[in-house]
Amino acid sequence: MTPSATPDSPPPSSPTANNENAESNLQPFFVLHKPIHKNSSRKSTQSAKTRRKIDLSTETPKSNKSKGAEQVEQIVDDHHYQQLRVEAFDIIWSKIEITIKEVLRGINRNVFNEIHQWVRESFAAIRSTAGTLNSAEFTCPYPLSIDIDYKKIFTGLVFTKNVEFVDDLLTFNDLRLHLKSQGCHVVNLSSHDFSAKSGIGGCIRSLLRQFVMVDPDVADITILASWYNEPENFDIPLVVIIDDMERCNGSVLSEFILMLSEWVIKLPVILVMGVATTIDAPRILLPAKALNYLEPCKFALGSPAERLDAVVEAVILGTNFGFDIGHKVTVFLRNYFLRQDGTVISFIKAVKIACAKHFVTEPLSFLCSGLLHEDCHGFLLQKCALLPESMREYAFSLPSCEGLDKTTPLSAESLASGISEIMKLKKNWSSIFMCLYEAAKFQKKQLVDILCEALDPDAYRTRSSLQRRVGEVLAKSPSVDHYSATKGSLILQVIRKVRDLPMKQLCQLLQIWGKHSEEIAAELHEKVKELQSLLKSEEENNGGQADVEGLSKMLATRRYMNIQRDKGKVFDKAVLLLESMIRDYLKPIECAPFHEIICFKNVDILQSALVGDPRRMIQVDLLKSHKFLLCSCCTKGGTVLLPSMHDTSIMYTLAQEHGDLINLHDWFKNFKSTIVPPCTSAKGKMRSPSSKKRKHSNEPEDLPDALVQARFCRAVIELQITGLLKMPNKRRPDYVQRVAFGL
After folding, report:
1. Please, which residues have CB within 8 angstroms of residue 258's CB and are 6 or more apart in sequence?
2. Amino acid 683: pLDDT
3. 383 Cβ partners below 8 Å, 6+ apart?
4. Under a CB-based contact definition with an 8 Å cutoff, are residues 735 and 48 in contact?
5. pLDDT for the residue numbered 194
6. DSSP-derived secondary structure for 88-153
7. d(Cα 43, Cα 273) in Å, to the nearest integer?
8. pLDDT at 533
9. CA 89, CA 212: separation in Å to the nearest integer?
10. Which of 243, 275, 302 is the last residue of a domain?
11. Angular region, 369: left φ>0, alpha ψ -120 to 50, beta rest
């Protein structure tokens, strides 16, 4: 609402007069500073820094973009293709998420089965004690006075090996579902239920809410006892899971244990408590009186590193998702897991952000969903045929396509075949990587470390050239260790160590190689089978090695040397086979044409989303506000300032034309000239014969000066709140200082 004029303000005059006196006729409420003398103004302007325009955009300059790329940028903003990318992301991520949940459940399945077996045995022990009581004692509505030996609470201590309990929340929720599916009454209690503020009443209320499905005003354990005596609830174990024991209040947890011990016969409660540190944690937290009532049993979950390896093996090595990540992104995700909180949940969220960013930034990413179809090539061919010519040109102008034959037609068939070939490459790569990783397991190498090197395209080229030279020399002199100097490469170290494996481990390794090579090529599988038969014959020959007592010492020594020589040949052939598999099939996806369509490589975008650079993002977003506000009229204007743009965005864009110090009055004039378009004089309007016809035109009306000043002040305050401006001081009352971060 525009404020009314003050009593001292002059009466309204003609529109021309108003325009001429607009700068000096400022409303008192909105005056920032009175104009100072021209000489001093000129002096201040000279002392200010030279005008400079800061480009915060992370996009490539237009001069470096091809014509096709510029056209694709316009198509990317089209609602149809945006919707296709969103749908493709939903399909692919839902499949990845389901796979991750199944993998995590599979890791804990054995431990969950052990816990369930222990729960059944504990419940049977409690029931055997209750069998000595008569019916009157068993059905009385109060706890029984029995010996302490009968008040023991069976307690499972589940060691999670986690510093952070974020992963444990999902684990104990899965445990609850598993025990429920096996016919147990199960509740989950958190450390918040054992706070000093809530006391023992908070624990009882939580039990009643989950077991009895009521929320009583008074926390009374007898309500639970009455509920359990009902026929449909009786004779079933009551399992209480406390996800993080060490975060609980010790006195409240102790009181809870003492209370349950009094009711353990009538309420056969079995505790399952998560422990993140050591076995001494209960002794440190609880007093001796409460510890005497516990009958502990230890269980151990997989470590975060083991869970991470399982997730990586299922997702990154998986070949049926239609999405992949590049080498630099994988290295960043590994470091993010190790240096941040070390939780699998944070790693999964980072992968999800990478997937989302890929579908936001890559125009052709909606084609990824076609890789999930049975007839992959046919589906992609159909989709590629519907692409505009500019998008096909963009696809063939990707950096990975620079090595393509210049005679390759820019057709839908070529594009569909190229994308389909990527999936074939990924399947072969995954199979050979598992062969390599099985050999690395004997050397206790980490999966993620091997993976980071296997995805590196530069390391692949270097390794391939080195392997060719070593292979030629190794064929001539197999006794020489030509990989001994390659200490920096984990993959070459694994190849070198295969020669030192025991015979039994090599047999196990060849069995796994045979399983994976069968999925790649028949020729490779035959080589593995041939090596297996050769190794088997060597084992049979070694069986007669013990029968050397009847031979002379010279013959025995000669026979032993022959056996060792033949054994060395088998191991050398195994090394050559692994080296050839790695050279021929362990080709990273980043070496394939069109890989940008399905592979996310922009680690800077992911790092910005995870680590965060909020001030820089605020500056970038202010310069592109129309993209976030979805303003169609502002989008058509491009980089030209329009009155319909947001005031704060207009102000910050105008600030780019100034130095570190911005003159308020110059800034205000520029702002006003932007939001108030120039209009013709009143005399010209009166003489215009078509003035009546323009009565309903779309020309904007003149804004009152007070409203313009109010909008100006509000935009300045918003820039100050975001930390992009420093307000005037006494030394420079007509200047604000611009603050830029991350430039």
Report:
1. 289, 290, 293
2. 43
3. 366, 367, 370, 416
4. yes
5. 93
6. HHHHHHHHHHHHHHHHHHHHHHHHHHHHHHHHHHHHHHHHHHHTTS-HHHHH-SS-----GGGG-E
7. 74
8. 86
9. 41
10. 302
11. alpha
Q: Which residue, 254, 133, 238, 252, is CA-closest to 196?
A: 252
Same domain, 53 and 192: no
pTM of the complete model: 0.72
Q: 145 and 294: one domain? A: yes
User: Tokens 């004039």 appear where?
Assistant: 669
Do 52 and 140 share a structural domain? Answer: no
Long-range contacts from 560-565, C-beta under 8 angstroms, 24+ separation: 563/538
- Confidence band for 637, pLDDT divided at 50, 70 and 90: low
In a domain, 647, yes or no: yes
- In this prediction, residue 701 carries a pLDDT of 59
Per-residue pLDDT band at 743 (split at 50, 70, 90)? very low
Q: Could you tell me if 452 and 317 are in contact, meaning their C-beta atoms sit under 8 angstroms apart?
A: no
- Arithmetic mean of pLDDT, 723-743: 77
pLDDT for position 703 = 78
Q: Are residues 273 and 139 in the same domain?
A: yes
Instruction: Identify the pLDDT of residue 71.
Output: 57
User: Which is higher by pLDDT, 561 or 80?
Assistant: 80
At a CB cut-off of 8 Å and minimum separation 6, what does 739 contact? 723, 724, 725, 726
Tell whether 165 and 271 lie within a shared domain.
Answer: yes
Instruction: Pick the closest to residue 708 from 663, 675, 684 (CA basis).
Output: 675
Give the side-chain half-sphere CA count within 13 A for 565. 7
Give yes or no for a contact between 333 and 607, defined as CB atoms under 8 angstroms apart: no
Q: C-alpha 565: how far from its chain's center? A: 51
Say which amino acid occupies 499: R
Which residue range(s) make up the domain with 261?
A: 133-302
Instruction: Note whether residue 376 is domain-resident.
Output: no
Q: Is 53 in the same domain as 168? A: no
Three-state helix/strand/coil letters over 657-716: CCCCEEEHHHHHHHHHHHHCCCCCCHHHHHHCCCCCHHHHCCCCCCCCHHHHHHHHHHHH
d(C-alpha 565, C-alpha 236), whole Å: 66
302, 331, 346 - which closes a domain: 302
- The verdict on residue 116 lying in a domain is no
Angle at 615 between CA 611 and CA 617, to 5 degrees: 75
CATH number of the domain bearing residue 195: 3.40.50.300
Cα angle vertex 330, ends 160, 455, to 5°? 125
Sequence letter at residue 578 = L
Of 72-81, 200-209, 547-556, the range with the lowest mean pLDDT is 547-556
- Domains in the chain, number: 2
pLDDT of 328 higher than 60? yes
- 3-class DSSP state of 238: strand
List beta partners, residue 737.
661, 726
At residue 140 the predicted structure's pLDDT band, cuts being 50, 70 and 90, is low
| Under 8 Å between Cβ of 733 and 33 | yes
Give me the chain's average pLDDT, please.
79
User: What is the percent of the chain with per-residue pLDDT over 70, rounded to a whole number?
Assistant: 74
- Same domain? 41 vs 175: no
- Residue 183 inside a domain? The answer is yes
